[in-house]
Specification:
This protein has 238 residues and is an alpha/beta fold. It is 37% helix and 19% strand. The strands form two sheets. Strands 4-3-5-2-1-6-10-11-9 form a nine-stranded mixed beta sheet, with helices on both faces. Helix 1 (26-41) links the parallel strand 1 and strand 2 (45-50).
């Protein structure tokens, strides 16, 4: 029995780069697609939001002289490229997948609505939701939180390169200690910066638990779907 039936998986664009500094690593893309299909085969309904930082990040564009609105719109287009790549990878491993976009982009992707998204999920199709919220000044973390609330997901899963939330960056501080569970208040008080504040507030106000976990470890997604304690869970209450 699948414990967490409908989930929203948030992936960073940077995670698709592997050890490169730009672009998409096809081996990692295929691993992600395979793990997502395994979760779907076990009864999970999987919504996905991917960032675009491996191609273009709006805030970085501002530092290079781009207007913030134009920079963020370019970042939205980067998320579409990543979404189409994941859609193709999922289809290549035998999973049904569709890309929905927050701004009109037919025939590249269908325009997002809650009804479309939930209809596809109920039919066993992975739904990749691109373009963040469709508005500038909002991150894809906020987009993921918004979509998770809209589709009534039971969990928001944030796939990262580390196996949870730590007291400090474990890649820089070997003495950093891992949290297995936190409340939103504790995470905010300790300034852990799991997501941006807007995304965090959306999850907290809608009682949506967040799990931070290592997506690069094969099988972790399926373990979470089946109810195992993987990574760090952030709950509304202790």
């Amino acid at each position: 029995m699948v414990k967490n039936r409908r989930i929203l998986l948030k992936l960073s664009g940077e995670s698709l780069m592997g050890n490169a500094t730009y672009g998409i690593n096809t081996e990692i893309l295929l691993q992600y697609a395979t793990d997502i299909k395994r979760a779907m085969d076990n009864g999970a309904q999987v919504g996905i939001v991917i960032g675009g930082g491996n191609i273009f990040r709006g805030l970085s564009g501002v530092k290079q002289g781009f207007d913030r609105v134009k920079g963020d719109q370019m970042g939205m287009l980067a998320t579409v490229i990543n979404s189409l790549a994941l859609q193709n990878a999922l289809q290549s491993v035998g999973a049904n997948a569709v890309a929905l976009t927050a701004i009109g982009m037919e025939p590249i992707g269908e325009r997002y609505t809650k009804e479309k998204a939930t209809g596809y999920l109920q039919c066993g199709t992975a739904v990749i939701m691109a373009c963040g919220t469709g508005n500038p000044f909002f991150t894809t973390d906020t987009g993921a939180a918004l979509r998770a609330v809209e589709i009534e997901a039971g969990l928001l899963l944030k796939g990262t390169r580390v196996d949870g939330v730590y007291t400090a960056d474990p890649e820089k501080d070997p003495s950093a200690k891992k949290y297995t569970a936190l409340t939103f208040d504790e995470a905010y008080k300790n300034n852990l910066r799991i997501m941006d504040l807007t995304a965090f507030t959306l999850c907290r106000e809608n009682n949506l638990p967040v799990v931070v976990f290592d997506m690069n470890t094969e099988g972790n997604l399926l373990r979470i779907v089946n109810g195992e304690n993987i990574g760090t869970i952030i709950r509304p209450h202790a």
